[in-house]
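Entry 14. Structure prediction run on the chain below.
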Amino acid sequence: MHHLAIFVSGSGTNCDNIIRYFADRQSADVCLVVSNRADAYALVRAQRLGVETAVVDKQAFNDPKVMLPLLKRHNIDFIVLAGFLLFIPDYMIEAYPHRMINLHPALLPKFGGKGMWGHHVHEAVKAAGETQTGMTVHWVSKEIDGGEIIAQFSTPILPSDTIEDIAEKEHLLEMEHFPEVIEKTLEQL
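Output returned:
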């Protein structure tokens, strides 16, 4: 059984969905939720579901002497980024090679890179006049949103869709597909 850590910065709907998905499966156990924000509602969601949490500020997150022992204490062998807004330091990528995945709210390689997160992505998709958007799950690499793509799912965009409509359509894809993609990825390790 794999021991998962979820890194999250926000409300944690994906985090909650992943924890619930793996609660009755033998393939993985979500052992730890890490956030860089003490006020991230994801921490409350995780605690309500019986998962341990840790708040790690940017300085501590960039310190291998803080993060690696934390992950080791929980026997973490796979990391899922689900709305985590800090840049992943090289030491962590090296410690978890092909063991860390990220969810991106667009069809990479479009609309990725620095500053492309959350509503910024949906605004860019709308401004570009795209006829579809979607979600991408990819391996974490030293290049922001540049790791090898694992899976993508798309949804059509209507010209009348607002940025909020686009965000909702994309989020529905995340809720439907992200836990399954994690499980299939784990099966291939």
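Residues 163-187 form the longest helix (25 residues).
Filed with the rest of this week's runs.
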